[in-house]
Amino acid sequence: MIAIPAIDLIDGCCVRLTEGIFDTARVYENDPAAVARSFAEAGAERLHVVDLDAARGTGSNREAVKNIRKAFSGILDVGGGIRSIEDARILRKLGVDLLITGTALVTRPDEVAAWADELGPVFVAGIDARNGEVKISGWEGASSLLAVDLAVKARNLGFAEIIYTDISRDGTLSGPNLPETVSIAAVSGLPVIISGGVGSPSDLEALVSEKPEGIKGVIFGKALYEGRVNLKDAIRILGGL
To answer: Known catalytic residue: 8?
Structure first.
């Protein structure tokens, strides 16, 4: 299981939300590239970036993504606002390794499949849910889909990986929703990365002790910025699984 630090972007700054509510945004750093560099120096092999402006349709942070790519040599995945093949092409040209699709996967799945035909196996299914129901458009839009059903659809479309976020846990530091994430892995048969809720080393140790089948990694951000989790320690703990 791998430790994946996160950078969420608004107006070019590193921020964190609580339960996906934009009014709760707190700025932690105005130089995302420096944050990415510090994560690399701590030993992170992969970095998770979300462009929250693009997710809401209010702008984009592509210049910040470009600078993050220069600062971080490991695997870089980016989500938020990838709603066209042109969006995907631009991010790939910036050097992004993996592209996370959520809203487009829900609203235009056949189109997303066509993107994969052109760009190859670079797409990750981003499934964000509250009470088991998928949310879209920066978590502000509703859908009629259950997370487990979208997970099956992702498998049928040929996705190789899922990032699952329990929105009600995100930014709360209250612990991740392991049972629901394991269910997503079970119904899809795909490796899943758990996101949302990590608040302490004990949360990571609990994940390791559970030895959850199908869980590939853990994304966390606020716990790092708040000093509740040290990235080097997290890498060591999760490496024990």
So the answer is: yes
Of the candidates 87, 67, 89, 91, which has an alpha carbon nearest to the alpha carbon of residue 77?
A: 91
Residues in the chain: 241
Mean pLDDT value across residues 52-76: 95
- Cβ atoms of residues 189 and 156 within 8 Å: no
Whole domain around residue 142: which residue ranges? 2-238
pLDDT of residue 19: 82
Q: How far is Cα 17 from Cα 24, in angstroms, rounded to an integer? A: 5
CA distances (Å), origin 31, targets 28, 52, 81, 216 = 9, 16, 21, 29
- Give residue 241's pLDDT band: very low, low, confident or very high (50, 70, 90): very low
The verdict on whether 128 is a catalytic residue reads yes
Choose among 2, 23, 40: nearest CA to 171.
23
What CATH number is given to the structural domain containing 189?
3.20.20.70
The whole model's pTM is what?
Answer: 0.94
Asked whether the beta carbons of 225 and 14 are under 8 A apart, the reply is: yes
From the candidates 51, 53, 77, 128, which is the catalytic residue?
A: 128
Split into its structural domains, the chain has a count of 1
